[in-house]
Design a protein that fits this description.
single chain, 387 residues, mainly beta, Jelly Rolls, 2 domains, 4 helices, 36% strand, elongated
């Protein structure tokens, strides 16, 4: 039987089922998006230069991202610290001013401070905490003295926070008063966090990165200060110039002042997230685990709470903020069987594991997507004749 249609002037070409694998690379820049429609580079769509037909696979191959994120921010819910004073024996009664201070700060009032958003080194963070804690108490005392018509107001300066560079721990001290850090406060358990003034986002519950106390080395427990039985000292070096390692002294204006301190059980963590995820709508191929939650569902079933096809790529953050990094590590490949008929548009989303969008601010980034295309080949037969 003839393989050709003799009733047509255009004979059918036999399909040889031979294909040529063509690698096609697409360079994508975040600055090329529609800025009006997508003001944030963490989530945008982009039109591709042409229709890509018979796509066998899609893969992220190379990228360059700015490392300019804030380790501490309202978005991450890790800029707040809550503390209070507890009733202790009045000291310094010979000076009526300090008795007024004692009466003011021992009324079971919780003080909340917020450090400035950004990235800190340990020394900067210790100074920020010291000043913010003292300023918060000073503001409270000023209002208390005003409301009760008291005179002689002075700024409060009894809190001292220092960093032990050897143990990598942040030490909290007070020159005169017993104090408590309320790391168990419900404000650290919020599951819905503000993105903008009018936008909120549900995020995964976290046992890591749950608040500023976590970054400072604490667990979710109330921590009571300990009375220092002897002078507190770091032996490796001076904390302040010329102090010979004695970083806190009792308040010199109080004859019976005693020092109270708290040492966190864990080291500080100021590095921020180590990874973020790229989502590519319709082409996600990476499965992702989900934080364990102790509830009736997890205790009565063996079904996982992980997410199937939650992301397209997982990208490591190998450097600290205020830098740029380039990488081309191996990433998962999304295969199509049968091949995708046509691809013309990509929609991207960049987020952390907890669901927060990555804040790239005004910094541009770029990455390359590799497509493998199947090109059908016409069956060819060559007869080579010797001359």
């Amino acid at each position: 039987m003839s393989r050709w249609n003799t009733q047509d002037n255009h004979p059918l070409i036999e399909n040889s089922n031979d294909y040529f694998l063509e690698k096609k690379y697409i360079s994508i820049h975040s600055g090329d998006r529609d800025i009006i429609k997508f003001p944030l580079a963490s989530e945008f769509e982009i039109e591709l230069p042409q229709d890509y037909l018979n796509v066998q696979s899609v893969q992220l191959t190379t990228w360059s991202f700015p490392s300019n994120y804030y380790t501490f921010s309202k978005l991450q819910n890790n800029i707040s610290l809550i503390f209070s004073f507890a009733p202790v024996k009045p000291i310094g009664k010979e000076d009526p001013y300090y008795l007024d201070v004692y009466n003011a700060i021992n009324i079971n009032t919780k003080f909340t401070i917020e450090i400035e958003e950004g990235f800190y080194n340990p020394l900067q963070l210790s100074i920020e905490l010291t000043r913010k804690m003292n300023d918060q108490v000073s503001i409270f005392l000023f209002n208390y003295f005003q409301e009760n018509s008291l005179s002689g107001y002075q700024a409060y300066n009894d809190f001292v926070v220092v960093f032990n560079a050897v143990s990598q721990k942040m030490w909290f001290g007070n020159k005169s008063s017993f104090f408590i850090l309320h790391n168990e406060d419900v404000s650290f358990h919020l599951q819905t966090k503000c993105i903008t003034n009018n936008s909120y986002q549900n995020v995964l519950p976290e046992y890591d990165n749950w608040g500023l106390p976590f970054n400072l080395g604490f667990t979710r427990k109330q921590v009571d200060a300990t009375l220092a039985e002897e002078r507190l000292r770091f032996y490796y070096d001076d904390v302040f110039p010329g102090d010979n390692g004695y970083w806190i002294q009792p308040n010199p204006h109080l004859s019976d002042a005693r020092v109270y301190f708290i040492e966190p059980p864990l080291k500080i963590n100021i590095m921020g997230p180590g990874y973020f995820y790229m989502e590519l709508a319709g082409y996600n191929y990476l499965d992702e685990t989900s934080p364990y939650t102790l509830n009736h569902f997890t205790s009565s079933t063996n079904i996982t709470t992980g997410i199937v096809n939650s992301a397209f790529a997982k990208i490591g953050i190998p450097t600290c903020p205020l830098s740029q990094w380039f990488d081309n590590e191996h990433q998962p490949i999304k295969y199509f069987d049968p091949p995708a008929e046509r691809i013309r548009r990509f929609k991207f989303k960049f987020r952390y594991h907890n669901g927060f969008l990555v804040d790239f601010a005004s910094f541009e980034f770029s990455f390359t997507i590799q497509l493998i295309l199947l090109r059908p080949q016409i069956k060819k037969k060559y007869n080579l004749l010797a001359v």
